[in-house]
Design a protein that fits this description.
The chain contains two helices and 13 strands. By secondary structure, it is mainly beta. It has two domains: 7-49, no CATH class; 58-163, no CATH class.
Length: 167
């Protein structure tokens, strides 16, 4: 630990950079640069950096898991907020998570946003705007609906994670 009475230490301002648990720690730091919006000053001479991820909080990300009782044919529209699929002729999927997951207002934004995840039985699916169906597995239909290019077997789990609200 540097000598706290050193005028050099006082002039440069930073004496120790460490993790909250105390290890590891760094000394002889003159400048520490952090991403915008991540630095706070809780007082008592301590600066805190939020390293929890992309800056998004749990309130910023929504996640829903839909569990299907029967096999769902490829190309079937699935409502990610209600669990209704197949035009409402099939039993709604059981919902685990929140029911206010929304997708972007356009297919292009759905395809481009890397924060949006569509996952079937633990495997992340490619996303598509829905404008040109192809080998992409998750296609945007609307802000609340998607179609998959593959069938979902009975008891299949579809996870959709998206920032909220999306633009």
């Amino acid at each position: 630990m540097p000598n706290q009475s050193s005028s050099f230490a006082k002039r440069r301002g930073i004496e120790i950079v460490r993790e909250v648990d105390g290890s590891p720690s760094l000394t002889d730091i003159t400048i520490l640069e952090v991403s915008d919006g991540t630095l706070t000053n809780p007082g008592t001479g301590v600066a805190r950096i939020d390293t929890s991820g992309s800056g998004a909080t749990a309130a910023d990300i929504r996640e829903v898991i839909l569990v299907f009782a029967e096999t769902v044919a490829a190309g079937t529209a699935i409502n990610i907020q209600t669990g209704v699929y197949g035009g409402g002729t099939m039993s709604p999927a059981v919902i685990d998570g929140v029911t206010n997951v929304t997708l972007p207002a356009t297919g292009a934004a759905f395809e481009a946003d890397g924060r949006i995840v569509v996952n079937l039985n633990g495997q992340e699916l490619n996303k598509d705007s829905g404008a040109s169906p192809g080998d992409c597995l998750a296609q945007w239909v609307s802000a609340t609906q998607i179609k998959l290019g593959i069938k979902i077997k009975a008891q299949g789990q579809l996870l959709v994670r998206a920032p909220f609200p999306t633009a």
